[in-house]
Structure of Aspartokinase:
Amino acid sequence: MPVLVMKFGGTSVANLDRIRRAAKRVGVEVAKGYDVIVIVSAMSGKTNELVGWVDETSPLYDAREYDAVVSSGENVTAGLMALTLQEMDVPARSWQGWQVPLKTNSAHSQARIEEIPPENIRAKFAEGMKVAVVAGFQGISPEGRITTLGRGGSDTTAVAFAAAFEAERCDIYTDVDGVYTTDPRICDKARKLDKIAFEEMLELASLGAKVLQTRSVELAMRYKVKLRVLSSFEEQSDEAGTLVCDEEEIMESNVVAGVAYSRDEAKLTVQSVADRPGIAATIFTTLSDAGVNVDMIVQDISEEGRTDMTFSCPTDQVVRAEQALLAIKEKGELNYAELLADRNVAKVSVVGIGMRSQSGVAAKMFKVLSDEGINIKVITTSEIKISVLIDRKYMELAVQALHDAFELHKTG
Ligand code: ADP
Ligand code: ASP
Ligand code: MG
């Protein structure tokens, strides 16, 4: 039997009614003759609640216990989905990550999938089970402890299963009907794309478009998984939603494919460090050892042998960063004047493969922001994207102005 992977995000399993609706969609595919692997998220809001409880109990938590707590939301929805399917006379069974087993490394809270042996689930399919419902977002480490795959990780669970079972397709059911030129919740002119290239989706995801977890796009690209994003709230045809595919499959495209944003960014400046070899290495090794995910980095020009080092990281990692840098200052391993933290910044990025061959995108982006009176604090670029850090209060305005200026509401 051909295998299909169907993933339902938090809003698609938010209550028993929605679970029933999702189960009906699964039933349609079973009736077509597929063996279906359903990946479920926790009910919407659940993971945030669990993370909140962990933070309140222990601000600098032990990541193994964080995983034990936050992985639990998916266990509930997996069991409920299997029960709902059974009530519809569809033979179904639920699986937690460790039961599959979905093997990961030991990087708790950000674990990477290493292997999904398909034998257990295949044996059940061979016995007549039609649907394997798998709890997304979770796995098991070599030490036998529960791990999680980072926020949004159920997308990655889904694509990894599609690769391991050579599924015909991996359908990601969510609360929007596809991938848009930008988040339709903050820009009403956002346009749904029928297709988007893997590389553009990868950049958009890594720059904050949470419709797909970055790692899921990487895996789909590597294992050539046919990946589709579609709505769980509408009747669906086989052409619905957005197909994430190779660049060659897309006939027309704009220079800029989309605008992404990341709201919860912080900017930290280590003031007046010595301008000599080894200082950047000391700062960023310390931050990495403390589990801080540094994104943008700028080093100012030096004056009298001293310079400022600025970097960005997620707002919820500022305390970790501050503590780690203070600790090495106190040990005499790094000498700096002051550590300044600005927690009110956001990152806005434009992404497009067309930028490889067309110049002027950066100039246009900066002009648009300046016309809106928005000051740019940090800039980074790569071959197919330009990102800026700005005051958070201008984030929506910046996204909308850039969407207009690059005419993303029109097809290329
Ligand atoms: P799920 O719970 O189904 O995994 P998520 O909340 O993780 O859903 O992702 C879907 C959300 O992603 C949408 O509701 C939308 O607000 C947001 N989003 C951000 N950027 C985009 C984009 N470019 N296209 C579509 N949705 C986007
Ligand atoms: N429930 C997890 C989260 O909210 C994983 C997911 O839904 O993809 O991040
Ligand atoms: Mg998600």
In short: The pocket of adenosine-5'-diphosphate (ligand 1) is lined by residues 9-12, 41, 152, 174-176, 179-180, 182-183, 185, 204, 209-211, 258 (CB under 6 Å).
